[in-house]
Write a structure and sequence with these properties.
Layout (H helix, E strand, L loop, with lengths): L2 E4 L9 H10 L4 E7 L11 H10 L3 E7 L3 H10 L4 E5 L6 H10 L3 E6 L17 E5 L15 H14 L4 E5 L7 H7 L3 E4 L1 H4 L3 H19 L3
Parallel strand pairs: 1-8, 2-3, 3-4, 4-5, 5-6, 6-7, 7-8
Helix pairs in contact: 2-3, 6-8
Bound molecules: ribulose-5-phosphate.
Function: Catalyzes the reversible epimerization of D-ribulose 5-phosphate to D-xylulose 5-phosphate.
InterPro entries: Aldolase_TIM, Ribul_P_3_epim, Ribul_P_3_epim-like, RibuloseP-bd_barrel
Keywords: Carbohydrate metabolism, Cobalt, Isomerase, Manganese, Metal-binding, Zinc
Length: about 220
């Protein structure tokens, strides 16, 4: 199943509960929470206290993306805050596999992300243990950037590895997804689409429904054969 994970980085920060409710009521499966520390990326956004507040504000699946230099320092906080999925970056400090295992032992789904300049191969040894993998399709840090086309080959490579080995691992992409390029992104093999500006810029419910329509069309064609 193809899922939408609206990135609240582009939502109204004074009305997160409202904007999340509109997106979820319109059919979004996950809610993507971009946590940035001003070190791993040149932007400072959301910390564990806000995730904790969001946990009280919604029953939606909180898909928490840690763009932080030192996950080991903060993993406990994000686990206790009520994250459903936690993504750590392969490029962050520490032992990525140990971080994945810690997340899973806490009963939280674990995901590892790579930046656009990191080859997909680094994920291959991790895939058997992952609930999800996240291919960044923009340089992490800011919403509203253009999709980097060169990342599509990485989506294809990871989809092939997941399918050939029968791994139970979702494949998420993050950055620059619009209604126009999403058909190609899902055709390449992504099954969780993060979209920020394309969801929260304008009519939130209408935008979510636009993505869902594309997903439905793809699934109907795909399963028709
Ligand atoms: O992680 C992010 C930036 O680091 C954002 O989630 C991502 O860029 C989504 O925003 P948009 O859909 O507007 O590109």
């Amino acid at each position: 199943m193809i899922k939408l994970s609206p990135s609240i980085l582009s939502a109204d920060f004074a009305n997160l509960q409202r904007d999340i409710a509109v997106a979820v009521d319109a059919g979004a499966e996950y809610v993507h929470v971009d946590c940035m520390d001003g070190h791993f990326v040149p932007n400072l956004t959301i910390g564990a206290p806000v995730v904790k507040a969001l946990r009280k504000a919604t029953d939606a699946v909180l898909d928490v993306h840690l763009m932080i230099a030192n996950p080991d320092q903060y993993l406990d906080d994000f686990i206790k805050a009520g994250s459903d999925i936690i993504t750590v970056h392969y490029e962050s400090n520490g032992d990525t596999l140990a971080q994945v295992r810690k997340i899973k032992e806490a009963g939280v789904r674990a995901c590892v992300s790579i930046k656009p300049g990191t080859p997909a191969d680094v994920l291959l040894p991790l895939l058997p243990e992952l609930d999800m993998v996240l291919i960044m399709t923009v340089e992490p840090g800011f919403g509203g950037q253009g999709y980097i086309d060169a990342c599509t080959d990485k989506i294809r490579a990871i989809r092939k590895a997941i399918d050939e080995n029968g791994y139970q691992c979702e494949l998420e992409i993050d950055g620059g997804a619009k209604l126009t390029n999403t058909p190609d992104i899902v055709a390449a093999g992504a099954n969780v689409i993060v979209a920020g500006s394309a969801v929260f810029g304008g009519d939130i419910a209408g935008n979510v429904k636009g993505f869902k329509k594309i997903f439905d069309e793809f699934e109907n064609n795909y399963f028709a054969f």
